[in-house]
Amino acid sequence: MPRPTGVLGEPLRQLKKLAKKDLLSQETSDQILALALVALGFLNDCVRVDLVSKVKNKEYWAYHKQGTPKLLSRPLNAGLWESDEKKIAKWWKKWRAGEEMAVMDLAKVTYTVAAAYCAAIDLFDRGNKKGPASYFEYYIGHLYAVEIGVNPKTAVSFNIGDEKVRLTMDLLFFPKKGANVHVPVKLSTRERVVQAWSHHKILEAVYGKAKFKGFLTVFSETKLDLQTKEVTEICVPGQWLAYQTHLSVLDRIYYFDVPQRYAELAEKFPIIKLKQFGQFFVEKEEVLQAHPHA
């Protein structure tokens, strides 16, 4: 991973170390919050710019450093972003303590903690794609690890004939009770999303049908035109429908910022179960149960 620059560097290095040791730990949770607050504090000292949203019923803004108005961060959903650092710290600690929370508070805190580092690093190192992707995977891994109660694995091994095959995946959870869980993680999907369905199909072939729940977890599908400041969503609904119908069935597709076209697709085709990520905490007891035929 490229070395992060500026105020975000050391907190991310500490998170990487803690996450590799124990994603489930309180120390990892504290470090995620610390990094998010550093990023949020930095962004609050920047200039916020309203963007031109081409997405129905959504508003977006971005940040730039003082004196560099052309270098904008990625777009942030105004309805989900919370810039108040005290609120974020309070909500995060409430979630970690297992206290009851309003769904909108869960949606906002999880969205903001996901986005703050990524938006801030845009202003230090615009071309750094791996840093945000790695952060997002640690972050999602921690959220699920806390809720499921076990650390994830990132690979499976199986035999094909006399050949041993090891296949790397994003996050695989094997709890003592409830369903095994496969979590493909993406900041955005575009064409690469087929990997989520193909990996799930391989898990079904190796372990048996219904042995894994599949929760594709994605941040957003937004794209910002730096010249016009227009925000659009890039979606491939036909491909999604084909994968979910003919490749394998993912039990949930969670988005932090739900794309409009995918929401419309899910309404038309109930086989696609699409939710805003905050809903996971509402329905977790149901979705984490093993399939009845497992």
Describe what you observe in this structure.
- The protein is of the alpha/beta class.
- The protein contains nine helices and 13 strands.
- Strands 5, 6, 7, 8, 9, 12 and 13 form a seven-stranded mixed β-sheet that branches.
- A hairpin with a 4-residue loop joins strand 10 and strand 11 (230-233).
- Helix 4 crosses helix 9 (278-287).
- The longest helix is centred in the middle third of the chain and has 22 residues, at 103-124.
- The radius of gyration is 19 Å and the shape is globular.
- The mean pLDDT is 93.
**Average pLDDT, all residues:** 93
| Classification by helices and strands | alpha/beta
Helix content: 40-55%
Sequence of secondary-structure elements: HHEEEEHHHEEEEHEEEHEHEH
Tell me the Rg in angstroms: 19 Å
Treating each run of at least 4 consecutive H or I residues as one helix, how many helices?
9
State which percent range the strand residues make up.
15-25%
Q: What's the β-strand tally?
A: 13
**Stretches where pLDDT falls below 50 for ≥5 residues?**
none
What distance separates the N and C termini?
38 Å
Largest sheet: 7 strands, mixed
**Looking at the structure, what is the overall shape?**
globular
Describe how the helices and strands are arranged.
Blueprint: H1 9-21, H2 26-44, E1 47-50, E2 52-53, E3 60-64, E4 76-77, H3 85-96, H4 103-124, H5 130-148, E5 153-160, E6 163-173, E7 180-183, E8 185-186, H6 194-207, E9 212-218, E10 222-225, E11 230-233, H7 237-246, E12 252-255, H8 260-268, E13 274-276, H9 278-287
